[in-house]
Amino acid sequence: MRVSLSVSHAHRGCHNPLATPPHWLNKKRHLSCCYSPLVRPQSTMGNMVQCCHMLSGFCKCKDEPSGGMAERSPLLSSRDSDSSSTSTTTPADSEDDILTVSTDVPDGALHPEHFLFPDIVLSSHLGGDATLVEPMVCLLVSEEEEGKRMEVETQTQQEPQVGLPVHTATVVEKEQEVFMLQEDHEDANRKLACRTTAVSLWSEDVSGAGAEDISDEEKVDTHTDHKTEKDQRSVLLQSKTQTSHEEVGRAEMMLQADVCCEDLDDHKQPLRDIINLQEMTFSVRIKLPGADILELQVLGQTSVAELQQMLMDHELTCHRTCFSLHLDDTMLDAAMQLSSMEGLCGGMVKVVEESYSIRDARFHLRHVQDLLRSLDPTEAFNGANGRSVSHLTCFTQNRSIDGKSERSRWSPPDFLLPGSLQRPLLPLHPVHSDSEHLQCVRVLAYSSWNPPPGYRKMHGDLMYLHAVTMEGREVNITSSTRGFHLNQSTAFTFNPKPALPTILCHSLVELLSQVSSAFKKNFSSLQRRRIQQHPYERMVAPFPVFTWMAPHEDHSLDCIRVEDVHASRVGQDQHTAGQCRDWNEELQRARELPRNSPQDCLHRGRILFKTNRDFVEASRKGAVAVVDGHVMPLNPGEPPHMQMFLWNNIFFSLARDIAQHYRPLGGDAAAHAAASCDLRGVQAYTSVDTEGLHTLGSAVVDYRGFRVIAQTIVPGILEKNQEQSILYGSTDHGRTIMTHPRFVQLLEKASKPLRIQPHQVLDHRDTPVELYSGVETKGILGNDGRHYILDLLRTFPADLNFQYSEETQVNIEEVPKECQSFGYPQRHHHSLANLRPELMNAFVQHRYDTYLKIAGTHQRGGVSEWKEPVDNRKDTDHDKASGGDFDIRFNPDLCSPGVRFVSAEDLSCQRRLLWDAAAFLLSSQIPLVLQDCLDHRMAPMDGATLTSVLHQRGVNIRYLGTLLRQLDNMEDSGRHYHVQRMCVIEMVTRSAKHVFRTYLQEVEHATLSAAVSHFLNCLLTSSTLDSSDQMLSRRRSHHRRRSRSHCGRAAGAAWARLTPSELWVRIRTDAEDYYHYTLDSAFMEDHGLQRVSLLREFTIKTGIQVRMRDYTMDSRTRAIFGEEDVVNMLAVVKHVTYTASSATWLLEHAYAAVRRGHVSAAFDLVSQALMLFTSVCGALHEDTCTCLRLLGRLSYTLGQHANAVRHQERAVMSSERTRGVDHPQTIHDYTWLALYCVAAGQHCTSLRLLYRARYLTLLVTGDDHPHIALLDSMLGVVLHGLMELDLSLKFLHNASILTSKYHGATSTKHAHSHHLLALLHHSRGDFESARRHESQACSIYETQVGQNHDRSRESSKYLKDLTQQAGRSIKQDSKLTPPPQCFHTMLQQLNMTCEDDLIPLRAEESTRLRLWEVKVQDLEKCLSSNTFSAAFMEEADVLGQLAVKSVFLQSL
Predict the structure, then answer these.
(1) Does residue 1117 carry a pLDDT above 60?
(2) Is the pLDDT reported for residue 230 higher than 90?
(3) Cβ(613)–Cβ(126) under 8 Å?
(4) What are the residues facing 976 on neighbouring strands?
C-alpha cells in the first residue's frame, strides 16, 4: 500500500517559522493524514489506537473495533500477523478513513520523533555527501483550518485536481504503517512530563515527583473546551500522566543545563538552545522542472546543500544532479541554513537546471552508475563507497520458506540444535528473495572518441559516452553543457552531429528511458526496490566495514571503476583529474571554526567529522597504492623500507626503523609500535582540543604485512631542514632540546587534563629546560603561522612492568611486592610499552578515595591517626590534595633513553609513583576484570570484546599471559572457562599475526593468493598432527606437476617451505616472548578451540577475505583452502575519531538517571543525545547505535513495546552496518530485539531472531558460552509458548547445564532454569519431573534469598500445586492435559531470564503503570458485565492498548 500524505501549514505567511514559537501552539490542533483513494490497502491496519501515538494523550479512530492486533514494526510484514488476535477491519474500511488526533500539546509535539525517520533526516554532512531518507510529510494544522482541509481533501478524492500536479513524499507500506502509526498514546504525555523530571534530576534535592505532582485542577483547566462525556472521561483518565502548558513552559525555562563547549575556557552554553535547534521542523515546498510540486519536511538546521542532497536521493528527483535552488528568483547559497531565510514559509523553492561543466558531467555519470548498481551487494561485502552488509530484514519479514507450513518453520536446522558440531558458513550471509540483479543497460562507458576536439568544445561538447541497451542497440551519447543527446558516431566513424530525431535531456536517465523501453521498465523496478529497502540499509556508512567471508563476485563492465583504480588518480578528486585537496588546511580550518554558541559547536563538529572521514578514506586508498607499488617514492635511491611517499597532499611512510632512529627503543619493533602510540597521542590531544595547538591528520593502515603511516603535511616542512623547523622538543633522544614560550604555554594548558607532569631536563649545554610533554614531542611553526605538535608517542607514561632489555638497571628495592609476586618486570620487545589513560584515571580515583578516607579519619581522631595511602610512603608533590584540588600527574620521560633530569629526588618520587600505578594494575584492575567476567557484567565472545573488556579497566593486551596464569590458578576455573578460551584464541591469533606480517613481506604479488592460502592451511592444521606436513608436501608436489611454470617459482620461495609444525613453533615462541605464557602442544583440544572461530579472528585482524562456502576443517587428506578461496585482501585502518561532546555529556547523565531509577528523564536525555549524535556523526555511527539501543531498553521498561521494537531494529541494522553482521554487539542486539518482539506479540519473528543470534554465537565462540545459556532459555520459553514441547525441552535442558556451569549450581539463575523445566514438564503432563525440578528450584530460592522472598513463596506454592496434580494423576491413572502456556506467563519468564539486564523502574513510574493496570481491570469488568455506554466504548478503545502494558507490568 502506497500512502500519499498531503501537507498544510498553519501559517503560510510567516517570514521565519523558527524565529519565535508560533501563536497557534496554544490552540487545539489536529493531525490529518489523508490516504490516497487511488490505491487499496493490501492488508488491514488493525486497531489504529493500539499502534497510534503521535502527539496526543488521548486518541480516537473512526470505524475501528475495540479489539486490536499487536503492534507491529516497520520491518515486520503486514501480510501475516504473529499475534493471536486479528483485526476485523476490511480494506474498504481503511481506504476512506481519516485519522484525527485531538490534543493539547505545546511546541514539544513538533519533536522530530513524530516524523518519519527522525534520527536520519540530518544524516548528512556538509560538502555534498548528505544522505537523505524521505521524511514523512505530516504537519500539525490549526483547528480553524481543519474543516477546510477535510473539505479540500474530500474534493480531491472525488475528482482530479485541475492545474499543476502535486507530488508529496511517499514511502512504502511497511515503513509508513509503523513510523506514522506505531507509538501508543501516553508516550507524548510522558515526553512532556519528563522534562520537568529532567530539571529536578540534576538539582541538589531530587523531588522525584515527575508528572504526578501537577494538580488535577491545572490539568482540567487545559481541557475546558471539552464538554462531552467522552472528553470528560479522557481528562480523568489522564489526570496522572498529562502536563499542562504552563508547567511545560516553566520546565522548558528551567532546563538550562550547561554544556561545556569545545573552547579553551570551557565556556558554558545552555543545552536547551542545542535541543531547540534540533527540534525545529517545518515544511518546504519545492517546484520541480515539469511543473511538479514536492513537499519535504526538514529540520531547522538543514542547509541548502543538504536540501539539494535530499532531492538527489528522493525517488522523484534522484536522477538530477546539476541544479540550483531559487527562492523568489534569487539563487540560494549552498551554505545557508533554511531556518535563516525569510519568505521560505509560504513561499516555494524552485529547482533550476544549470549548465554542466566537465566536473558536473562526470559527477552525474557517477551518480547514475551508483543508482544502477544500488542493489549490487559486491561493494557492501568489501566495505567500498560507504556500503556494508545488513541481513535483519531477512529474519523480520514474515515470509514462508519453500512453502513450508507455519509449524514446520518453528523447527531450526539441525546445526542449530544443542549438541551439534556442524558449523556451516553459508548461513552467515543469507540470500534475499529479491536479490536478483536488475540490469538496466548492458554497457555504459566512456567513448573512445574522448576528449572532444577543439572545434567541438566550441559547441559545448564535454565528453562522449558509449552505451548498449538491453535490446542490443548501440548508441553514442554527447554530454554537453546543456545536457545529453544522441550523436551519429559509430565505433569507427566520428560524427558528432545530433542524431535524428534530436532528443535533448538534462538527465542521462531521461535520455536512456526514451531510447530504451527496457531501461525505463527496469529502472522503475530498481527504484521501487531501492525505496522499499529500509533507510538504514541504503544510507552510507562513514567508515568501511568489510566482511571476512564474501561470495565470489561477478565482474562486470564499469567505466567508473576503471577511473577509480587508475594509478595516476588514486586518492585525488574523483571528478576532475589533477585536483588534490589540501587535507591539512581543511582540518585546521575546521578546528579553528567558531565555537561560541551551540550552533557553532554543532557546525564545527560536523565539518571535523566529515573532513576526517574523507581523509581516512583517502589515506586508505593511498596506503594500498603505496604498498602495491603504484606511487613513486620521494627517495627512489634509498632501500625500500626507508622510502617515503607524497600523494594527494598526504605524506606516507613505512613503520620501519629509518636511519636507526628507533634503535635505542627497540628497532623495527619500536617503529611498528610507535605508529600506534603516536596515533593514541594525537587522539588524546584532539580530545583535549586546546585552542591554538594543532595536530596533524593521522591514520595507520595495515595492508599486506606492511604498516603505513599517513599524515597531513605541515606547511613549509618540506622546504627546509627538520632541525631548522623544530622550535620545541628533541630529535636526538634528548641530547639537544629546543623550547619556545608559545609551545610551553599551549602544552601547559593541555598537560593537566592529560595528567602530564611538568619536568625539567638538561640539554646539551647542561641548561635546565622545562617540558610539558615527552621529549620526543616536536613543536613546529608552520608557514601558515599555526603551532603544530607531532611525534606524540610519549603522551602516556611508561609501563615499568615491561622493560626493553635485560641490561636495563632495575633497582629491585623500588619494585613493589605486588609486581614481584607476578614475576615483573619482564623483558619486552621495545621500550614503548605505555599505560592506558583508563588505568591512570582509575589509579587517580583510587588515590582520591584513599585520601578521603584518611582525611575523614584525621578529622575524627586527630593527627596521630594519619596513614599513608600506599605502602606507608611519604606523600609527594605529585600526589597532593589541598582545598579540594587533588592533582596526580605522571612523568612521560622516565624511560626515555638519553634524557637527563635536573633533580634526582624528584625523579625518584616520580618513578615510585609510576611503580605504584603498575602495581595497582596487577593487584586491582586485573582482579576486577576477572570479577566482571565472574559476575557476568562482561562476557567476551571474541577478541574485539575481550580487548574492550581489558581496556575498560585500563589493562593492556600484553597482560594476556598474566590473566591466563590467574585463571589457571583459580579454584573454580570452570566458571571462567569461556574467558580462558577467549584469551587463548586472542593470544594465538595475535602471535600468528606477528608471524604472518614477516611471512607476507617476502611474498611476490603474483603469488599472494597461493601464499595466503598456504599460511591458512598451516594455521588451521592442528600442531599435533605430524601427517599434515606430509599432506601439504604432497599437495605442493601435485600442484607443481599440474602447473610447472607458475608453481615452480613459488615452490622455491621461502613461504612455500613453511610447514604447520614450524608455524606453530613460531606462534608458541612469539606467545612466550611477547605475553610470557607457555602454550601446550595440545592447547586447542584442551581449551576446546574451534577452527572456525580461529579463522574468523585471524582474517579480521589481517584483512583477509575468503570465499563464502563451507570448509571441511577436520580433513587430514586434503588442504582446507585453495588459491581460489582467498578472494581479496583489504586494508585495516586505525584513525582518530570525532564525536559530539554535548551529546556525550547528555548520554553520561542519562546513564546516571538510569542508575537512579529516573527512566522517563533518562529517555528524554537519550533522545536529545541521539539528535546531536545524528547531526554530527550521521545515523550510522556507534554512538547513535548506543542511543538507539538504550532507547529501546527504556521503552521496553516503560511498557512501550512498539517503540522498543522500532528503536531496537534501527540499533540492530546500525550495528550490522558499523560493526559487522557477526559482531558480538550485533548478537546481543538480535537477542534484545527478539525479547521486544515477544512483548509486541510477534512470536514467530522472535523465534527467527533467536535462531539467528544462536547461529552467530556458535560461529563466533562455540556452544560453550554463557550467552548460549541465555539464548537457549529464551528459545525454550518461546517454543513452549508455541507448544513445541519436545524442541523446547532440548534447549531448556542445555541451558540448565550451561547455567549450572557458569552461574553455579546453587545460583538463582539455575533455580530459574529448574523452574522453566518444571513448567515445560507440567505442560507435557509429566508431573513427577515437574515436581522434581520445582523442588530443586524452591530449595535454591530458600537458600539464596530466604523463605519470605516473593520467588520462594511463588515457587513453594507452585510446588504444592504440582504435588496435588501429580497425586490426582496417579489416582486417575491417566495424565491430565494442562492448558497451554499463556502470553502473560511467557513474557514473565522471559523477563525473569533477562532480569540482570533490565532497567529497574522508579517507584513513581511503577505506580503510574499500576494505575493503568487498575483501569484495564475495571474496563474488563465493565465489558464482561455489559454495563457500559456508547461513549464509554470510545474510552474503552483508548484503554485497549493498555492491556499489553498490564501484562508486561505483571511480569516485572
Answers:
(1) yes
(2) no
(3) no
(4) none
